[in-house]
Amino acid sequence: MSYQFLNGYGAPRVVIQSISTKLNDYTIDLDLCMIEGLIEDYQEDFKRVELEYNSQIVDYDYRGAKITFNLDYDSYCSATNLMNIDIIHAYISRSTEFRVFLQPRTIASGGRVFEVRLSGDSWSQGMHKGGSASVGHKGVKISFITVHPESKNFSDTNTNINLSFFHFL
């Protein structure tokens, strides 16, 4: 069976880099997002004017897109994954010391990697019914947004799979 999709597959990876040493301080592989998936939203960054005399819309000064990555663990989130999300929050709160990078899918051609911050200022988590016999957490969603406007860097996973690990400059 041939799969037809872009931008890779696999779980998201977050890499924390020290600003002072430029070395990777911590790597976190998050769980797959189950049925809800990982959704990428694009907000194009450009200027727009509408000409008064003919109502024509003119776009200019295009700089790329702010990309929001929505990781939705609404139906299930393991305790380990929830702890990893908490660690990411801790590092992001120290933005003068660390940079945070997201590789949305660990097996991706072209190595799509983006410097990110958290999108929004709150998140929630719940627990499935069952008390000590509960299967785990639910209702967990985390969203990242790119620090700078970026190219979407779409890549065709079907023709060029890059399995190498990455290091940031």
What structural keywords apply?
single chain; 169 residues; mainly beta; seven-stranded antiparallel beta sheet; two-stranded antiparallel ribbon; 9 strands; 8% helix; disordered C terminus
Summarize this, please?
The protein has one helix at residues 79-92, and strands spanning 13-18, 24-29, 38-50, 57-73, 98-103, 114-118, 126-127, 137-138, 140-146. The protein has 169 residues and is mostly beta strands.
Description of the structure:
The protein has 169 residues and is mainly beta. Helix content is 8%, strand content 38%. It has one helix at residues 79-92, and strands at residues 13-18, 24-29, 38-50, 57-73, 98-103, 114-118, 126-127, 137-138, 140-146. Strand 1 and strand 2 (24-29) form a beta hairpin. The N and C termini lie far apart (38 Å). The model is unreliable at 161-169 (pLDDT under 50).
What is the first-to-last residue Cα distance? 38 Å
Q: Bin the strand percentage.
A: 35-45%
Summed up, the domain count is: 1
- Rg over alpha carbons: 19 Å
Count of β-strands: 9
- Proportion of residues in helical segments: under 10%
Number of helices: 1
Largest sheet: 7 strands, antiparallel
Structural category is mainly beta
Show unreliable segments.
161-169
Strand order of the largest sheet: 2-1-5-6-9-4-3
Q: State mean pLDDT (0 to 100 scale).
A: 81
List the secondary-structure elements in sequence, H or E.
Answer: EEEEHEEEEE
Based on Cα principal axes, name the global outline. globular
Outline the secondary-structure elements:
Layout: E1 13-18, E2 24-29, E3 38-50, E4 57-73, H1 79-92, E5 98-103, E6 114-118, E7 126-127, E8 137-138, E9 140-146
Antiparallel strand pairs: 1-2, 1-5, 3-4, 4-9, 5-6, 6-9, 7-8
